[in-house]
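--- STAGE predict ---
source: upstream dedup step, 1 unique chain passed
mode: sequence only
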Amino acid sequence: MRKRIVTLAMLGLVFTVALSLVVPTPAHGLPAAQSALPSGFHMETVTDNLDLPTTFSFVPDGRIFIAEKAGRVKVWKPGQGYLNTRPLIDIRDEVDSFVDRGLIGMAIDPDFMHNGYLYLLYAWDAPGQAHNVDEPRRSRLVRYTVEGDVVRPNSSLVLLGDHMNDKQNHSVGTLAFAPDGALFVSLGDGSLSAMPDQLSLRAQRLDNVQGKLLRIDPRTGEGLKGNPFFDPANPMSARSRIWAYGFRNPFRFAVSPLTGLPYVADVGWNSFESLMIATSGADFGWPCLEGETLVKEFASAQECAGLTYAKTQKKEMIYPHSGNNAAVVAGDFITGPNFPAHQAGGFLFGDYSQQFIKRAQLGPDGHVTSVEAFATGAGELVAMKFGPDGALYTLSIYSGGLRRIVQDGAPLGSLTTTTALPAKAAQALSARIVAPFDGDTVLGGTRVKLVGEATGASSASWHITRHTGRQATVITDTLGSTSAFTMPGDLGDDGYVEAIFSATASSGTTRAARVKVFTPNSDGYIRAWWLMGGYPYRALADNMLPGGEANYIPKPDDPLAWPIRSATRNVNFLRYITPVYKTMAYAFVWIDSPQERKGLLGMNSDDGIAAWLNGKEIWRHKISRYMPDDTRDIDLPAIQLKKGLNALLIKVDQNDGDWQFKARILNADGSIMRDVTARLGP
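--- STAGE serialize ---
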C-alpha cells in the first residue's frame, strides 16, 4: 500500500466542511454565493424550477432526468429547453425524506435505449407507516422501466431492501455502473451524526450493508463472483454484495473509466473529510478511524480492537475541518476536450457546505498527486458530472438548480449519443389498459367493460378485486384481453375496485397494468383530473393550450397532460407541479350525465379561476382568498349539461402560498347531482 497521503492542509489550503449533507434549512430559494471560476470559464443555468433536487442522469437521446428529494423525477429536454411539467415518476407517497433521507441515488442502465431501465435509491415508507417521521426506515433500490417520458406503471422490481435508516442521518448515496456492467451502490452507516452512536460500528461488520459500498448484479440484486467476500451458496447475503467497507457517509462516488474503481468521497464527523479509491475488500476504518486519526469515542469497541491506520486502506486525500462545517462531494473525471489540456486526467470534487470545487491531479497509477482550486461559490453541491456535450454539470439542492460550467470558446458537442431505439425494442413484452382510466367514477350497479392490450405475449388475463378499507375480496379472474364486472353499490368513500391486466410471454415473463375505479364520493367533489401545467409567469389572461382553451380535449398520449387522483376534495397543484412565482395550470375531466339538465358548477379556489363547459367559458374571476378544507362552494356559475359526456376545463393561477381548487356538479337548488360521474376517458 502507498504511504503518501495528500492533504489540503499540506498544500496550504484550508476549507470549511459540513457534518450532514442534505438537511432542512430556511435558506431554500435564496441565491447561491457569487460563483468565481477560473479565467476562461463561465457558468450557465440549465434549469432551476426544481424542488430540492438531489441527483441527475444523462439519457443517450439527449434528455436529462433530475431527481427531487421528496420522490419525483423530472425530465429536461434540450430541444424545448425546459422541464416537462409531468414527472417521469412520482413516488412521494413511499419515499421517506425526513432530514437526510429521500430519493438520493439514480442511474440509467447502460443498455437503456434497449430496455428502458431506470434505478432509484431511496429511504422507504412502507404501507401503513407514518410518512417522513423520526422512526427507523428501510432503504430501497428499485428498478423501473421507462416508456417515453414516463415510467411504465407497475414495472418496479426491488433489488435491495435490507439497508436501515435507524436515525435521520447517513442514509443512501450513489448508484453508478462500472465498465463491466456491475452496479455499485453506496450506503451510509444509518447512525446519528451529532454524537457517538454505537450503530456506527456496523460499518466494520460484514454481516450487514451499513456503511458499505456494494457491487451487485443489476438484474437480480445479488452479489457478483468477483466480490471479495462472495459466498456462492448465498449470493444475496451482505457479505456476497460488499465490495468495500468502513464508510461513514459515502454520499457520492464516481467510477474511473480507466480502472473501473470507485473514487469515494466519505463525509467525515468532527475533524476530516476523505477521498479514497475503493479497491476490492478495502476497509477505510470508520468509526474506529476518521481520516488517519483514531476516534477515542470508539476505541474500546471490539470492532476497533487493534485497528490502526496502517491496517486499513490508505486514503487518497484528507482535509481538516479546522473547526468549521464540511461535506465532501465526489465529482467526475476530466476526460473530454473541453477543459484545458493540463487538467486532463484530473478528478473534480466539491464541498457542499463551503461551496467550492477542487481538482485533484492523478498520476499514471490513478493516485492523487496534488490538489488545486477550481471554483468557489459553486452552490450547495449534491451532484457533479460531465455531460456528453463536454460541459461540467453541477446540481445545487437549494439555490442554483442544474447548471453547467463551460470553457469559453470550447466547441460543445451534443447531449445526444443515440437518436433512435433499435427495432428489437418494439417487440418487448408489455401490457396496458385501454379502458377504463385509473380514477374513473362509476355508479353502483353499472356494468364496467375492461379492455387491455398486450404486446409480445402468449396469454393475457384479468384479476378484479373489491376493496373496502383494508379488506379485499376477489370479484372475478378471467382469461383474455377483455373482461367486465358490475360496480358494487356499497363501497363507500374509501372503497374501490382494482382491475389488474397481466400479459405473459412464452418464457413465463409477466408484465402487468392496473386501474382503480371508484363510486362518486358522498361529498360530490371530483378527485380525478387530467393536469396541464404549470406555466410560469402566466395568469388567467394567457391561453397556453394548442387549438385554444375552448377546443382543448386531452388524449391519453398527450404530452401536455397527465392523469392524477387527489386523496382529498382539494386538488392542490403543488402536489404535482413545482411552481415559480406566478404560475398557471389547467385541469380537465369528462362529466357523464344520463340526461340533459340545468345545474350549477360548485367551485372554490384560493387564487384566480376560470372554467369552460363543452367549449363555452362559464366563469372567470380573479381572486386571492383562503380556501378551507370543507364543502363550501363560493363560485356557483349556472351550467347546461347535455346527455352523455360533457367536457369540463378548469384554469387556476397562482400568486403566493397555496395553489388549489375543488369542483363538483350540483342541481339548480344547490344539492349534489348524484347520478353524474367523472371520467378521464371518453
